[in-house]
Amino acid sequence: MASTSPTTTPSTNNEADEPWLFAGLASSFPNINDSSEPCFKLSWAQPLPPLLPCPSLTTPPDIQPKAPGCKVFHPKRNTTNTTTTTTLHEIDTDTAIGEDAWLMREQVLVFRYKGRFHAVDHACPHRAYSLSWAQPFEIEDSGRVLGTGIRCRGHGYAFELSTGIGDRGEYRLGVWDVELRDCIRGGDDSEEGAGGREDVDREVWIRKRKRTKGSKVMQSAGE
Asked: Distance between CA 55 and CA 37 in Å, rounded?
């Protein structure tokens, strides 16, 4: 397992809030645009996006690097005599499916679907099946897109990604807040005319969201 860096940032609201955790650069997450394949899994390798807005970084599709379509992290608290910090330990997606159910309930799944980042609990709230094998989809009604959901491969339970509300029973998926922060990485000025170019990227930060009561159940998600 490898931990990300930086680790945490202080909460902006009050000290009772969960900390913001750094999940990586936006450019390290593939943008999943098509999940219609019947056996689609989030963990499948997808092409990484080019850094924008630098046209010179565009890579031909046949040689464009790929990465798993999601990342799985295990948050761990580190306490000293004076402070408590939290670090994200990334778990290889090839082994995430075999994690113990109790461990998966403490882990978070992060991915980008149709340009939008999502972070949710790794374990399905029904039977703790790994959502790294799940399928994201658009929730539609009469041709209108109402939102985005995720369907578990274990028993077909589906959940709305902004609220975690499920399509049956009282099951609800834990949803994390996601924040994108600007960052600029120094570019390579060795190319003729580059002039010390800087490549624009963004940092992906996540925070465990507090759960609320009294939510309604989503009806017919993704059907």
From this structure: 30
201 φ/ψ sector (left φ>0, alpha ψ -120 to 50, else beta): beta
| 8 A C-beta contact, residue 131 and residue 109 | yes
Per CATH, the homologous superfamily of domain 2-208 is Rieske [2Fe-2S] iron-sulphur domain (2.102.10.10)
- Cβ–Cβ contacts within 10 Å for residue 10, how many? 8
Domain locations in the chain as residue ranges:
2-208
pTM (2 decimals)? 0.78
Rounded to the nearest 5°, which phi and psi values hold at 15?
-70, -10
**Torsion 79-80-81-85 (CA) sign:** negative
Evaluate whether 151 touches 137 at the Cβ level (below 8 Å): yes
The DSSP secondary structure of 54-109, one letter per residue, reads -GGG---GGG--EEESEEEEEEEEEE-SS-EEEEEEEE-HHHHTTS-HHHHTT-EE
Residue by residue, pLDDT tens for the chain (223 residues) are 444 444 454 444 444 578 999 999 999 999 999 999 888 999 999 999 875 444 444 445 556 789 999 999 999 988 888 888 899 999 998 887 777 888 899 999 999 999 999 999 999 999 999 999 999 999 998 889 999 999 999 999 999 999 999 999 899 999 999 999 998 665 554 444 344 445 579 999 999 998 765 444 343 333 3
